[in-house]
């Protein structure tokens, strides 16, 4: 998981940075920190590493007594197509530096840049936390927005909290004879992957390895599950969600071609709100979307207000950022071709490509 402990940043302002090798210390710091996300957790870091082969590392800022006062979990993502980067965190919408003190955050930012230089990695990507402002760091904003709001008190109140036009779509879904199942077992995992794989193929993007979903479900245990919408017994929409400190996070979800006409996605998210409430959740995190895209508008239609997300990137001199955006002009032809692939071919080739996206 981590290299032998050695200082990556010399003692300065009573803080030094070194690899964190003690799992219990990692778990304890994340559990105690109010700003921690599931993407800072050892469970996430190690699950991604097991499923994709990308190295999992954690940098810790230590005070003079040796106590952890800051944390930065990382994945070393390598791809022959997309290049390499140190990413915090891999396959995540969040992560980044976890520290209360700006001086501690600066020390971690300096340390990860030093680690990148030492390993010959051209870039570092921080998907959350306070963006560093040191040499080589660039803020990235006006690209993504996050969507989250509190859950209503019950199903009826939840329905009324949805704006009128979208509420009408949800009502039609509720009257459509669809069935909803939840679970973590073999059947739910199989059906979720089938639906998700078809969904992303239809969008023109490669599917992640099934091992990634299995690893996350296994690592998070009861704090992750799958909700699937079925029509005539067949899965038509499905979502894998994380549960974190009273918030449900629908993370990997999608629907088949049939889902749109059946309004299965409307059923899926509304049912998930009720399912999460029954688990004791009080907040719904709809995840991130790129500004100006269909998913961005869809989430606004549900009554969620966008919150700009600020990411940060460090680049070695003369380097350019990795381009992993499927909406990029350079991938337009590939996206159009991918949409036409037979599903069996997309599912065989896609994971080999997608594991390099990080």
TrEMBL record:
What start-end ranges are recorded for coiled-coil regions in this protein? Answer: none
Q: Where is the BioF2-like acetyltransferase domain?
A: 167-300
Q: Which SUPFAM superfamilies match?
A: Acyl-CoA N-acyltransferases (Nat) (SSF55729)
* UniProt protein name: FemAB-related protein (PEP-CTERM system-associated)
Q: Which organism is it from?
A: Sphingopyxis panaciterrulae
């Amino acid at each position: 998981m981590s290299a032998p402990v050695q200082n990556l940043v010399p003692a300065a302002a009573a803080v030094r940075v070194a690899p964190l090798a003690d799992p219990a210390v990692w778990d304890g710091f994340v559990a105690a920190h109010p700003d921690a996300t599931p993407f800072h957790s050892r469970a996430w870091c190690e699950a991604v590493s097991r499923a994709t082969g990308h190295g999992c590392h954690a940098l810790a800022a230590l005070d003079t007594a040796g106590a952890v006062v800051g944390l930065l979990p990382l994945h070393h993502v390598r791809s022959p197509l997309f290049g390499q980067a140190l990413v915090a965190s891999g396959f995540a919408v969040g992560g980044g530096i976890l520290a209360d003190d700006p001086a501690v955050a600066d020390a971690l930012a300096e340390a990860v840049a030093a680690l990148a230089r030492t390993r010959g990695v051209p870039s570092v990507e921080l998907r959350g936390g306070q963006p560093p402002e040191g040499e080589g760091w660039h803020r990235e904003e006006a690209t993504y927005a996050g969507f989250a709001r509190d859950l209503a008190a019950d199903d009826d109140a939840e329905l009324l909290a949805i704006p009128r036009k979208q509420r009408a779509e949800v009502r039609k879904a509720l009257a459509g004879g669809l069935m909803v199942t939840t679970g973590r077992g073999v059947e739910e995992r199989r059906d979720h992957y089938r639906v998700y794989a078809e969904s992303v193929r239809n969008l023109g993007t490669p599917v992640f390895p099934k091992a990634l979903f299995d690893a996350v479900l296994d690592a998070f245990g009861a704090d992750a599950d799958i909700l699937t919408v079925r029509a005539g017994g067949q899965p038509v929409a499905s979502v894998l969600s994380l549960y974190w400190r009273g918030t449900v996070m629908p993370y990997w979800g999608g629907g088949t071609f049939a889902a749109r006409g059946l309004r299965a996605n409307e059923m899926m998210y509304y049912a998930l709100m009720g399912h999460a409430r029954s688990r004791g959740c009080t907040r719904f995190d709809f995840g991130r979307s790129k500004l100006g895209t269909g998913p961005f508008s869809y989430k606004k239609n549900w009554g969620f207000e966008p919150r700009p997300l600020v990411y940060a990137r460090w680049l070695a001199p003369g380097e350019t950022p990795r381009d992993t955006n499927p909406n990029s002009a350079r991938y337009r032809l590939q996206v159009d071709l991918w949409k036409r692939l037979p599903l069996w071919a997309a599912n065989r080739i896609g994971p080999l490509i997608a594991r390099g996206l990080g």
